[in-house]
């Protein structure tokens, strides 16, 4: 349903729709002066076309309460005035005076079009009365004074001129009530409203810019989360492959361009040295260079339920006083046979015979340990 609202700044009236007021919480912008105001608070009631016209107020018929003016006259003139026939007394209804406050409100009383205008009739009649006054024809005729009219026998209607007439007031009110065509806008356009500072809730350009910034931040956050997830997968690729063996082929394929490898579990406490021994190599004797060749026999067992990396071995050689005189680090590539797999299978066991060579030392004992490099 279309409503009518009026701008409190310039007085322009235009139609609005209830949906527009509901979307913007009742705030609209005037199409004439660009003033933002509450359209619901400034709604103008629609005129009722079928309402009957208000009847004119009754005109009092009582005669004026002021006593008639009785000026003193000389006997000749008084006798002459008494001898003249008296004009029939007519009672004129008093005119209604409109105050300035009433004219500003626009509450003009109904004007009867059939009634003659008092201002239009009063001035010519006044002039006719003055023209009809007796004038001396000659110096011998004597001086005849012009007597004021008796208010009781005055048949003219009083005329008042206070501010504007009722017709002018009605015309001004009609001009104020004219609806000025304007555009009810609930958005701000740089092309139309250039140089104006709109309210933030009406600036669609600013709202769209903020929405674009929010989208960009959302995309950046999503990319950041994906990058963080990729870094976590890269760092913990071995643990992920161990927890989900089905993902190992995918991770290994992804590591090809990155030149990395997917490792296995590294639980060194679950790898045990079942037995070990250090003996001179069969058929080997100390040569001229004082080098001694030994053989380290080791049995390793993986007690973990998942494959693990091959451990490195630490061999400490001691003398007769149990002092370490030499230490050797044996890496997996130094002791693994060619048929060994890439990982230490779960629950498996391997026998190793590792050659060891020392020079210029008297070896009386050894200590063997394991670790992940």
UniProtKB/TrEMBL annotation:
The chain crosses the membrane at residues 216-236. Pfam families: DUF3426, Zn_ribbon_5. It comes from the Bacteria. Residues 3-38 form the Zinc finger/thioredoxin putative domain. Residues 55-75 have a biased composition (Pro residues). NCBIfam families: MJ0042_CXXC (TIGR02098). This is Possible membrane protein.
């Amino acid at each position: 349903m279309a409503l009518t609202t009026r701008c409190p700044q310039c007085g322009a009236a235009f139609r609005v729709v209830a949906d527009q007021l509901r979307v913007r919480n009742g705030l609209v912008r005037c199409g004439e002066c660009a003033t933002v105001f509450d359209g619901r608070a400034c709604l103008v009631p629609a005129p009722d076309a079928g309402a009957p016209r208000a009847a004119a107020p009754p005109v009092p018929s009582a005669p004026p309460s002021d006593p008639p003016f009785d000026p003193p006259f000389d006997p000749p003139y008084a006798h002459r005035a008494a001898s003249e026939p008296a004009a029939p007394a007519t009672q004129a209804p008093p005119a209604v005076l409109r105050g300035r406050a009433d004219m500003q409100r626009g509450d003009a009383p109904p004007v009867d079009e059939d009634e003659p205008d008092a201002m239009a009739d009063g001035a010519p009649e006044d002039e006719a009365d003055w023209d009809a006054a007796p004038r001396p024809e000659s110096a011998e005729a004597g001086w005849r004074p012009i007597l004021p009219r008796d208010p009781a026998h005055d048949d003219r209607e009083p005329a008042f001129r206070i501010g504007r007439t009722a017709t002018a007031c009605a015309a001004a009110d009609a001009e104020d009530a004219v609806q000025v065509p304007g555009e009810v806008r609930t958005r701000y356009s740089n092309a139309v409203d250039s140089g104006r500072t709109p309210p933030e809730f009406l600036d669609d350009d600013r709202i769209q810019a903020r929405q674009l910034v929010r989208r960009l931040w959302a995309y950046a956050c999503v990319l950041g989360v994906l990058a963080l997830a990729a870094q976590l997968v890269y760092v913990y690729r071995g643990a992920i492959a161990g927890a989900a063996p089905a993902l190992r082929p995918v991770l290994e394929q992804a590591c090809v361009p990155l030149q990395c490898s997917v490792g296995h579990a590294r639980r060194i406490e679950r790898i045990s040295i079942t037995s070990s021994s250090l003996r001179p190599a069969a058929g080997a004797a100390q040569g001229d260079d004082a080098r001694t060749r030994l053989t380290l026999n080791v049995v390793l067992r993986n007690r973990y339920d998942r494959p693990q990396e091959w451990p490195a071995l630490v061999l400490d050689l001691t003398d007769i006083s149990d002092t370490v005189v030499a230490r050797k680090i044996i890496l997996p590539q130094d002791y693994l046979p060619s048929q060994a797999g890439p990982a230490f299978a779960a629950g498996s066991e391997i026998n190793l015979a590792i050659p060891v060579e020392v020079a210029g030392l008297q070896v009386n004992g050894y200590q063997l340990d394991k670790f992940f490099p």
